[in-house]
Write a structure and sequence with these properties.
about 240 residues, alpha/beta, two-stranded antiparallel ribbon, 7 helices, globular, binds zinc ion
């Protein structure tokens, strides 16, 4: 595995940034891919470069492994979906219990494009931050979805891609512990300062867990995970 290459779905959020560190710890060469799909806030995309820089400051030896960043425009995804992530709708929960931040097909489309790039670049491992332990209930984050997609992509492209989801069975506190084990306090600080998860794109205040509005579902998950990581005895 140490001789092989990986492509990391890197959105600029905490989970995908942790996956990038995980991949750099394991693989010989790592490339990143991000998607501009008409999301309401571009802040996640804007913090990506700053995080890559901070990551290499935390672990300079990873500099030789970190390669190309592919930024793919997928405007069509915004056109076909009517969600609170791609329009000004208020974040709320649908009748089926899913938040209206769910963009139908998003991860399926992202992984399909990632596989097309991996095919061209000779990359075997495709890494994503999908997680069904502490999550918003998005059905395209489920382990079964990812496994089914791996089969479909391998059949459809005649390759042996491995879709890696290192966070799938971790809660958010465990994700922080993973980051600490990979890059110490410097990586934890880089994640706090340079990743963004807030659905409202708010970076006006730095909380103990990073930037965000503090009230949207993404901030709520991030704050609770940080609290459980930072002071486990009080949980
Ligand atoms: Zn928020």
């Amino acid at each position: 595995m140490m001789q092989e290459k990986a492509l990391v779905l890197f959105s600029g959020g905490q989970d995908s940034a942790t996956c990038l560190a995980w991949a750099l710890d394991r693989f010989a060469q790592v490339e990143t891919i991000g998607f501009d799909y008409g999301q309401r806030h571009k802040i996640e995309l804007e913090v990506r470069d700053a995080f890559r820089t901070a990551l290499l400051a935390a672990r300079p030896e990873w500099g030789a492994k970190l390669g190309t960043d592919h930024l793919i425009r997928l405007d069509a995804l915004g056109q076909v979906s009517d969600t609170a992530l791609t329009s000004d709708a208020t974040i709320a929960f649908n009748a089926d219990g899913l938040p209206n931040t769910f963009v139908p097909g998003r991860n399926i489309i992202f992984l399909s494009f990632a596989a097309a790039i991996a095919y061209r670049r000779g990359i075997k491992h495709i890494v994503g931050g999908m997680c069904e332990t502490d999550y918003s209930g998005y059905p395209d984050c489920r382990d079964d979805t990812i496994k089914a997609l791996q089969v479909a992509l391998n059949l459809g492209m005649d390759r042996r891609f491995v879709l890696e989801t290192p966070l799938m069975w971790l809660d958010k506190a465990a994700t922080w512990r993973l980051a600490e084990s990979l890059g110490g306090a410097a990586l934890v600080e880089a994640l706090l300062e340079h990743t963004h998860s807030c659905y409202l794109g708010d970076r006006s205040e730095r909380h103990p867990w990073g930037y965000g509005c503090g009230t949207c579902p993404a901030c709520d998950l991030r704050a609770k995970g940080w609290a459980a990581y930072a002071a486990p005895e009080t949980r």
